[in-house]
Each structure stands twice: as structure tokens, then as C-alpha cells.
Hints:
Blueprint: E1 7-13, E2 31-35, E3 39-44, E4 59-69, E5 73-82, E6 85-89, E7 92-97, E8 104-112, E9 115-125, E10 130-138, E11 145-146
Antiparallel strand pairs: 1-2, 1-4, 3-10, 4-9, 5-8, 5-10, 6-7, 6-9, 10-11
Amino acid sequence: MFSSYGFRGDIYFLEPETLKLPRLERLKPVGSVYTNVLQVTTRDFREGFPGITDRIEWFAIDCSGRFWVQEPGKYNFSLMSDDGSKLYIDGKTLINNDGLHSVLERAGSVTLKRGVHRIRVSYFQGPGFGVALILDVARPGEEWRPFDLDHYLPPPGHEYWK
Length: 162
């Protein structure tokens, strides 16, 4: 189920032979998908990417959202993809997993203050074979788990969320 606080993923069609994430702001989106988590486990590219019906290769998704940190501290993120992906927190690149490659995982950490933060995950699928996009997080003192925006909502009635 998707809440209004989830990721909005704008979809872009790419030219064949694209080698890395293009500057998506220069392209026109062809649609959008919505989700609270990015947990597309490794699969054959012919199975497609959830929510994308017109392409099984040569497309990009630019997912953005915001999240609330209740407990400040060092947050570890893991981004796994086939092909390229990047994770941005508050406009800064935290993980660069770009390029044509099979399933590859990269990690990064950031110290976050209490309050609202912006998140963006850019992903592209090149030529065939596999599809995967998984974003996990380990909060201070906790184990790895899927990064679910429903678990990062502000306290009820918080005026800064709007």
C-alpha cells in the first residue's frame, strides 16, 4: 500500500546504448510510479520492473520523497542495483552505484539531525539480463532493514512536515 508520504518515481525512456544515468532534468517523464519502499529483488529483465509496463530495458526512474528523523545520529544506507543507481540525501550524493553492471551493492553513511530530510534515488535499466533496485537502512544501533518511508513519518501534528 502507498501513502501520500512515499516515493514518487518519474519514469524516463532512454536511448539504447546509454552507459550511465543521464541528466534526468533534461528529459521529459513519460509517467510515474509510487511506492513506500524500493525493494525490487533481482529478477530476469523480461519480468520487468514493477509499475513500468511499456519497457523492459532502456529506461530510468527518478524517485524522490522526504522523511523524518526522530533520533539523530549516523544512518547507514545500502543501495543495490542492476544497472546504475545513485542515492542523494538532502541534495548530496551519498552513494554512487552508476554505470552498466550486474547486481552490485554500495553503501554509505550520513549523520542526520532530528527533522525533515529529502531523499532521491535515481536508477536506470540498460540492456537485458537482470533488474534489481534495493534500498536498505541501518539506523543507529539497529540492524539492516528495508528503507520504508512509512517508518519515517513526523510526530502527529508536527508543523514542519507540511
